[in-house]
Design a protein that fits this description.
about 150 residues; mainly alpha
């Protein structure tokens, strides 16, 4: 009848996927503060303000997104917002690939390899949102609800 997992196993896989995504976001967010220089270098020049400001702001956003994805109550919204964030930072990856086109082959390959990775990241974040289900919109089973 197909390869559907039992609901409890599917929930475990979904929670694990969300935890991995939250971990990726948190690690990336921390690196924006610990070692901001590589991020400063890929901020598109057309943005107002300083590259460091954008680096620190995007690091803070990644940390906030990590928290929203990690918490079941906010996971659905966090997944959708994370997908949007991954799409929004794509121009920085394009800038990096363009800037690194004359670097050694390995560095150039790494910069170019980042470009197609954004699409699976967006899809992963959307899957985390989808798998969170409508839980945030349903009443908590432990609280009494009023019926009209």
């Amino acid at each position: 009848m197909g390869d559907r997992r039992p609901p409890d196993q599917e929930a475990q896989v979904s929670a694990r996927s969300a935890a991995l995504l939250a971990g990726l976001l948190a690690a990336a967010g921390v690196t924006h503060f610990v070692r901001p220089e590589p991020y400063d270098a890929i901020v598109p020049r057309g943005l107002p303000g300083s590259p460091r400001g954008w680096t620190l702001a995007s690091g803070a956003v990644e940390l906030a997104l990590a928290a929203t994805v990690a918490l079941p109550a906010t996971r659905r919204a966090g997944g959708v917002l994370t997908a949007g964030f991954f799409a929004a930072v794509f121009p920085a990856n394009v800038k990096m690939a363009r800037d690194w086109r004359h670097r050694p082959t390995a560095m150039k390959a790494a910069a170019y390899a980042r470009l197609p990775v954004q699409a699976p990241l967006v899809l992963w974040a959307l899957e985390v949102a989808r798998s969170a289900g409508p839980a945030a919109r349903t009443p908590d089973a432990r609280r009494p609800t009023l019926t009209p």
